[in-house]
Amino acid sequence: MLALAGWLRAYGHSLAKVYVTYRLPSSKGNVSGGLSMLRHSGWDYTWLKVWVNRIAPMRLRRAGLPASVSDFLSAMGLSAPVEAVESVKSPEVLAEVRELAPELLVSFSATQRFSDELIGIPSVGAINVHYGALPRYAGLSPYYWHLHNEEPEFGVTLHRIEPELDAGGIIEQSIRPVGDQKTCLGLMLDMAGQVSPLLNRFHSGATSLDNVTEQDLTKRSYFRHPDRAQVADFKRRGYRMMDADSRHRVVEEVRACRSEN
């Protein structure tokens, strides 16, 4: 939601409804998915995910700041209904989205792949923001993999949603230097800062689904969660999942968002 703050401030009044997906990708449940991640990737990587999704909201709430999607929308002065759903492919969700008859479906950080049926409902189309300069860095945790591979730049891509994950035509990309960033959480926040400008340009008409660049999938790279050996190598080279400064930055950026409304 922090990444969407600027867009919500400018265009949030047009929201019909917000669906929050909460089931981890490719898992029967969040507990089993978390344990599987812990076995495969180790504690440090798993703790980053737990901190962002569970601990950070608790810390924000203690500071009197927006700590949930509903809180954040309220802080923006928006009243769109919010519903947590186990599956956006369920008949009930699909029926309700048809009833809403949206022009556009906007996806950000969803934990589920959308069905052809859902993608086909909005009259204008369905778009997604991905942390990576597609077709490179499709898949999971691009903020980790950009640092792991010591990339000099990171990208954020606004693209059309298609059944194949992160493969739709590119509407626009933002490319920025990684600089001296050494933490996944810090790079995640750097990436988040590029999301709203891309969405605002789309909603202003500066970019559109009528003028996309199809991805050259021969140049595609796709990443999953790192394994323990990869994480150990990551740490040996001086990188970290997060540090005190990046955790503090989350709180201060949320505080700044609230003060601007």
Could you please describe the fold and organization of this structure?
The protein has helices spanning 5-11, 30-41, 43-62, 69-75, 91-100, 116-119, 142-148, 184-192, 195-204, 228-236, 244-259; strands spanning 18-21, 82-85, 104-108, 125-130, 138-139, 153-160, 170-177, 222-223. With 261 residues, the chain is of the alpha/beta class. It has a single domain, classed as 3-Layer(aba) Sandwich (Rossmann fold), CATH 3.40.50.170. The protein is globular.
Give the SSE map:
Layout: H1 5-11, E1 18-21, H2 30-41, H3 43-62, H4 69-75, E2 82-85, H5 91-100, E3 104-108, H6 116-119, E4 125-130, E5 138-139, H7 142-148, E6 153-160, E7 170-177, H8 184-192, H9 195-204, E8 222-223, H10 228-236, H11 244-259
Parallel strand pairs: 1-2, 3-4, 5-8
Antiparallel strand pairs: 4-6, 6-7
Helix pairs in contact: 1-9, 2-3
Task: Pick out its properties.
single chain, 261 residues, alpha/beta, Rossmann fold, 4-stranded mixed beta sheet, two-stranded parallel sheet, 11 helices
What's this entry about, in short?
Helices cover 43% and strands 15% of the residues. With 261 residues, it is an alpha/beta fold.
Give the CATH superfamily. Formyl transferase, N-terminal domain
Largest sheet: number of strands, sense, barrel closure: 4 strands, mixed
Q: Counting H and I runs of at least 4 residues, what is the number of helices?
A: 11
Q: Provide the structure class.
A: alpha/beta
Radius of gyration: 18 Å
In the residues, how many domains can be counted?
A: 1
CATH class reads Alpha Beta
Determine the strand fraction and express it as a percent band. Answer: 5-15%
For the record, give the distance between the C-alpha atoms at the N and C termini, rounded to a whole number. 15 Å
**Global geometry:** globular
Low-confidence blocks of residues: none
Helix content: 40-55%
* SSE series: HEHHHEHEHEEHEEHHEHH
**Number of DSSP E strands:** 8
